[in-house]
Prior knowledge:
This protein is α+β, with helices and mostly antiparallel strands. Mean pLDDT is 74; it is low at 17-27, 134-141 and 146-155. The chain has helices spanning 2-21, 31-48, 50-58, 119-127, 144-147; strands at 61-86, 89-116. It has 5 helices and 2 strands; from the N terminus they run αααββαα.
Amino acid sequence: MRYFQFLTIVLVLVFAAGTFISPNSAAADTAAEIDRDVKSALEKLYAKSASARAMGEKAKGILVFPSIVKGGFIVGGQYGEGALLKGGEISGYYNTIQMSYGLQAGVQKYGYVLFFMTDSAMNWLDESEGWELGVGPSIVVVDVGAASSATTTTL
Length: 155
């Protein structure tokens, strides 16, 4: 048990050091690249799901993370960059970062879109300094496949 705790601590420190010491190739995308990827991801989502398009038309804001990379072996992490759209225009840039440990192995890449449907949800996002899913306003998570049968009324 002690060996496992020591190994976990060492792996976390190595992962953290590698993140901060990594070469410039791991630098953040430019605003133009993020803008392009966000608009492309949203267009693809809307093409696959009429319900998502309907939600997008009524949303006060849409936060799009077109590409999040998650990976790990015992110790894991994820990172992605995205942008907030208000009225169809980019109004801010965000990133998502997470570290975890436990029984895990592998790498995956995915994206997600958050629709902020009320003014109070938008105000909360604008006023917060970092946040977590599950804290603050209610969030509905719908897979693209499930979204094809969902409506803005049922969501």
